[in-house]
Amino acid sequence: MTDCVHNTDFKNGPLQGLRVLDLSRILAGPTCTQLLGDMGADIIKVEKPGAGDDTRKWGPPFIENREGEETSESAYYLSANRNKRSIALDISNIKDVETVLELLSTCDVLIENFKVGGLEKYGLSYLQLKDRFPRLVYCSITGFGQTGPNAQKPGYDLMAQGFGGIMSLTGEADREPVKVAVGISDVMTGMYASNAILAALRYRDQTGAGQHIDIGLVDVQTSWLVNEGVNYLLSGQEPVRRGNQHPNIVPYQVFEVQDGHLIIAVGNDAQYQRFCKLIGCSDLATDARFETNASRLVNRDVLIELLSPVIIKFTKAGLLQLMDASGVPAGPINNLQELFASDQVAARDMKITVPHPLAASGSIDLIGNPVKFSKTPVTYRLPPPICGADTQDVLDEMKSLRTAGLTDGESEIGE
């Protein structure tokens, strides 16, 4: 496999020159490739002609055109597919598989999220490709990974949250288990996948050898149980749902005030002492039941019962101002309008505007990338593509590379 040509001026990000063939859809894989694309990689998204990524239809809302009509581009799809080019290919068609193989001769990475073994019948599994493309980094995303008794089961974010334990921890103690509101298992899997791909590319560049990355939603979900998971492993005690309370710190939760709710996050004993004084409860600062975090954990319910009727007398703005002045962590609970209208979001470029040919205004707003490089900033070069919009350009480009001798030549179905 011929190395991609790397641009040393990094004008489009640190991954300028990296090429990724994206056979994934829904959220985990697209999240991964959007991250790589933001950092400069060339992402070629392969979609089924006339259908495309399933999430294109996961609305409303959809983009509205100049006639006020809904298009086929949903907000869900738009959230994870910028900085990509879409090529329409049907891998059940042998000629289109040949095209995929030709494209692979120009790519560093292949990412897919088919069921375990799902690409074998098309000649596109890792085992079928690894000898032909020994430098290829091949990333497979599934629900349960490539091995284990559940490997053949389908994987969806909700199922991963359920199997992976997070739902047993989320919600109020006396209510049903609750999932995280967004597809967090998918999103975190995309993040782990992008990190793993970059590590595998580092190894490839040092040794010349590609490899297979096997990543499962449930494994990822298990890994980010973090302190609650290790709390259980250390103690053998099953955690309970605490709503907005912290399992290891008190008081660290949502409290009601006169005009709504806010977050109070007392992280250590010194902060607790200051907090008690600023709300006029100095006696609670010296009460032996609450002097240390360990004692506050034991007496959590008693302390919260004493604090709540005092805190509710404050307004949000008033208490936040007092706590900020005293160096005690606290914060608002913004709705999305408040969040995206905030000076902080503006200062950090977390709401971006990109052109889109279907939008009535000619552009759409998206959520920005959180990574801030000092020398190689992320770029927003391409809007989320219309299905198949770049097919001819990509095919023409591939022919040019082949003519220039920058590919492995004619492709054939792997065995």
Task: Write up what this structure looks like.
It is a single chain. This protein has 415 residues and is an alpha/beta fold. It folds into 2 domains: 263 residues, 3-Layer(aba) Sandwich (Rossmann fold), CATH 3.40.50.10540; 82 residues, formyl-coa transferase, domain 3 (2-Layer Sandwich). It has 17 helices and 13 strands. Strands 5-2-1-6-7-8 form a 6-stranded parallel beta sheet, sandwiched between helices. Helix 1 crosses helix 7 and helix 7 packs across helix 8. The two termini are 18 Å apart. The relative contact order is 0.15. The N terminus and C terminus are likely disordered.
Give short descriptive properties of this protein.
13 strands, alpha/beta, 2 domains, formyl-coa transferase, domain 3, 415 residues, single chain, disordered C terminus, three-stranded antiparallel sheet, Rossmann fold, six-stranded parallel sheet, disordered N terminus
